[in-house]
């Protein structure tokens, strides 16, 4: 595991205006939302000050605004490796997109249809799915093994049946930090004729999304977790999106995707702002030594690979300290080494949550707050995990969620403060 060099880190942090603010916080709450790129803020400003018109008109400014929106859709398609930019549906948040998805799916649900959810989900993913019970759907729960802290594929096999309609799961837990084997899950789900929906909110900031490689049918995440504006994207296979009920005006054609699933259309300035995200990762690919002539996608992949190495370096620094304490229980994998179980590789992202025996999480957070270190405690809307691991007993889980712009020095500062309050 290798960290970014001082020169590379300086180039990274120069892209984020917040790091130039005097006495700024140390940001270890990135799972709640990342810092915003200057490229993104500039593009939002650019749209609002030069093309703030109703798109669709034939005059020059309207045509420019429309071109920016369509260019953004293509940029997002490339960023997530969608085969067709018409499969890119955008909306205000992952939560709202999931509720829209459920409304589009609702007419196809019949009494007795089975929906499988996991108990490791953020409420943004499963809250909407549970509402299908009102249409007669049977909700089944795939639970994390409390010993391994994994979603075991054998348990999924026991839940799947010819009545299974959908399986909804997270690509990476926002508490456990575990990267789930969605491709292997998709193969099992498709084998019984069902479909897979994947929430990648916690995954997308740490790995380059590839919707085709995931083999999912629906894939969704929020851009503000990936250093962009408060906006979100849902990808779906084109034929599937066409089959869904329309959520837009009556005059919109059934095959007019993504418009039929974007009621009231997109937020144009935020969509234009989103294009700063893939721009940044491609630029960082060059800074970090990607081969000359690499494609945009290859540049982004190179950047994500280097950032993954850096995040693993930071994570292991913190995990090593946490492992040394007998009164701390790490939630998820206790180290960054990749584990092979169920004939698949298990790994974690740089989101690390833990429970502390004998010290309330509020005491810990109050102490780190004094030093302007931004971490959190609570249940993180992962109510299934909170119940399974008895967060109430501990007063909540403490979570440190790192991003590629964090430094080893920041991790060391955090550890020093934790040592002062955890015996």
From TrEMBL:
InterPro entries: Aminotrans_V_dom, Cys_dSase-rel, PyrdxlP-dep_Trfase, PyrdxlP-dep_Trfase_major, PyrdxlP-dep_Trfase_small. Keywords: Aminotransferase, Transferase. This is Aminotransferase. Pfam families: Aminotran_5. GO terms for molecular function: transaminase activity. The lineage of its organism: Eukaryota, Sar, Stramenopiles, Oomycota, Saprolegniomycetes. Residues 26-414 form the Aminotransferase class V domain.
